[in-house]
Amino acid sequence: MGEAVMTTRRQADGAIVVDVRGSLDAATVGALRDTLLGTVQRERPLTLIVDLTYVTFMDSQGIGTLVTGYHAARETGTRFVLRNPSEFVHRQLRVTGLAEMFGLPPSSSPSQTYTP
């Protein structure tokens, strides 16, 4: 089981960014779920960006947590954006058939933001 660090910040345009670093697995997804759901419920931002640039590993529980965040955001009218998924993360989302739901292109392209 890995470790993950999450930080939250507000951009000048009002969007809230959750920066995730490390592994998203059974040991770490609870913190991400709490961060995503808490941010959506408390802040109700127009846009919630999850920056995955430094996510080195993600299992099915990590994918499930992103799906949970996506649905919670949609319920409150918040736009849910995945930013810079690594090739590994992008591949995991493609294999599970969820890449399209998150608005990801057929292949990973660094330094792009994807929006559903």
From TrEMBL:
One of its GO terms (molecular function) is anti-sigma factor antagonist activity. It comes from the Bacteria. InterPro entries: Anti-sigma_ant, STAS_dom, STAS_dom_sf. Belongs to the anti-sigma-factor antagonist family. Residues 5-116 form the STAS domain. This is Anti-sigma factor antagonist. NCBIfam families: ant_ant_sig (TIGR00377). Pfam families: STAS.
